[in-house]
Amino acid sequence: MQAAIPVTEQAPAYLNVGAGEPAPGWLNLDASPWFLIPRTVHKLLGATGFSRSVPFVQASYRYYRIQQGICLPFADESIRGIYGSHILEHLWSADIEWFLEECHRVLYRDGVARFVVPDLAGLCRDMIQSEAPWVDFASHLETLP
Predict the structure, then answer these.
(1) CA dist 49 to 23, 43, 44, 57, 128, Å?
(2) Residues 27, 79, 95, CA angle at the centre, nearest 5°?
(3) In angstroms, rounded to a whole number, what is the distance separating the alpha carbons of residues 5 and 61?
(4) What is the rounded distance in angstroms from the CA atom of residue 93 to the CA atom of residue 44?
């Protein structure tokens, strides 16, 4: 089991999962190796005073891979809010259920979890109405081909 990341009054107890570009003031988790590239660039630019890079570099960012058996590294009921955009559709269904249970475990009793997912029905309607001979469905879902 991973060591728990301390949540203090100085570090807001809000979690951005699958962060990509992290939200300043939140605890940001992502498993993509690609975040290292822009983060390195932002560190270099931030050192020169480039204003858009400074919040990126100052954000709390940790590696975390959503997978059964890899618990969220937080104590029970220690997180006030959880946000994730376009991450659930990248997981196996069993991992989704397990991850949502983990979110429930670490979330305050009156906390809020908000996940953004693609509108599959809307994409299907668009595909049916399309004049194109084929639709790049994976790009609409923001998934890898």
Answers:
(1) 19, 10, 9, 11, 49
(2) 80
(3) 11
(4) 39
What is the distance between the alpha carbons of residues 109 and 1, in angstroms, rounded to a whole number? 24
Residues 6+ apart with CB under 8 A from 73: 2, 3, 4, 5, 62, 64
pLDDT tens-digit series, residues 14-41: 999 987 667 777 888 887 766 666 667 7
Q: What span, in angstroms and rounded, lies between the C-alpha atoms of 91 and 100?
A: 12
46 and 53 Cβ atoms separated by less than 8 Å: yes
pLDDT, tens digit, 9 for 90 and up, residues 42-85: 677 767 776 666 666 666 777 778 888 889 988 999 999 999 98
Q: What is the reported pTM?
A: 0.68
Q: Which of 113, 115, 69 is nearest to 88 (CA)?
A: 115
Task: Report the alpha-carbon distance of residue 80 to residue 14 in Å, rounded.
Answer: 6
